[in-house]
Design goal:
With 142 residues, this protein is an alpha+beta fold. It has four helices and seven strands; from the N terminus they run βααβββαβαββ. Helices cover 30% and strands 38% of the residues.
Length: 142
């Protein structure tokens, strides 16, 4: 398993990011593609399996003075095998290395992913809300 920080200029890797998000959000969860791919400037990552195939992705960006983690996705056949958790741990360490941890780190979690984020130190706040007709909770790292 390896994890890579993807530069916007790395076309092949960015295509892998787009393909994973298309599979998970657009095809599997029926999220309109324009809602998933919003073109916000962000830092993207890929996680690879042992055969060096990209199987998961995520991004973070600065939004309203905070660091917002978004679009965490792992292909269906690789879920519940620790890939999402390893990717999140790597990215949280990467954010620390960039010395921007004074900013609050937040995310919007689908209900099924809440246990993953809680294991990493995130807590829910606020009321349930819907993004792309999918229930979510806001969470912040404590």
């Amino acid at each position: 398993m390896k994890i890579a920080h993807v530069k916007i200029t790395e076309k092949e890797k960015m295509n892998a990011v787009k393909e994973i998000r298309m599979q998970v959000f657009v095809i599997e969860q029926n999220v309109p593609s324009n809602e998933d791919w919003d073109k916000e400037p962000s830092e993207n990552y890929l996680i690879y399996n042992d055969q060096n195939l990209p199987i998961g992705t995520m991004r973070w960006r600065e939004a309203e003075g905070k660091i917002k983690i978004e679009r965490v996705s792992v292909l269906k056949e690789y879920r519940n095998q620790g890939y999402g958790e390893q990717l999140m741990k790597y990215v949280l360490e990467d954010i620390k290395r960039l010395n921007i941890t004074k900013k609050q780190i937040i995310l919007h979690s689908q209900l099924l992913a809440i246990p993953l984020y809680e294991r990493l130190g995130f807590v829910k706040y606020g009321e349930i809300f819907y993004e792309a007709e999918i229930p979510h909770y806001a969470m912040r790292l404590v």
